[in-house]
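Anyone up for a design puzzle?
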């Protein structure tokens, strides 16, 4: 009798463990699926920040200070006299002249993503000129349910 009881207990434990293993596999597959397919929120944020990036490039090209101020986060200012944006990055003041000469024909999307949480987003472009390219990093922050320019780095 003890052998039969032990056999059934062992079989039950084996089946339970097998079920856990299958559940882990399913969970792992679900995680991989989420990583492959961006969510609806991410796609919405991506669309908004890419469009905002294009509008910012255009505003800088045309020295449209009013538009730049309207899409700037609280920590970023627009210097109208020098055509620069000014903000703090890693406790250092950054002054960056307006981007000029950038057109869709020499611009390529390189990447994007949340940098900390779903309120900070970065969009990356390559700017091609002559036989080389530079990289442009747009940093956005969500304030009052709207994406705003929080910084810009480039070697272009």
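Challenge accepted. My sequence:
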């Amino acid at each position: 009798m003890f052998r039969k009881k032990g056999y059934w207990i062992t079989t039950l434990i084996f089946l339970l463990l097998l079920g856990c293993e299958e559940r882990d596999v399913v969970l792992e597959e679900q995680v991989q699926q989420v990583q492959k397919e961006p969510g609806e929120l991410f796609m919405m944020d991506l669309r908004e920040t890419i469009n905002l990036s294009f509008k910012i490039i255009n505003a800088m090209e045309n020295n449209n200070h009013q538009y730049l101020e309207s899409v700037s986060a609280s920590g970023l200012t627009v210097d109208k006299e020098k055509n620069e944006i000014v903000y703090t990055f890693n406790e250092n003041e950054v002054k960056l002249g307006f981007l000029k000469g950038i057109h869709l024909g020499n611009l390529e999307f390189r990447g994007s993503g949340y940098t900390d949480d779903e309120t900070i987003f970065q969009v990356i472009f390559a700017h091609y000129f002559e036989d080389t390219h530079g990289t442009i990093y747009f940093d956005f922050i969500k304030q009052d349910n709207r994406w705003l320019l929080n910084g810009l780095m480039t070697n272009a």
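A detail worth pointing out: Strands lie at 77-79, 84-89, 92-97, 107-114, 120-129, 132-143, 146-154.
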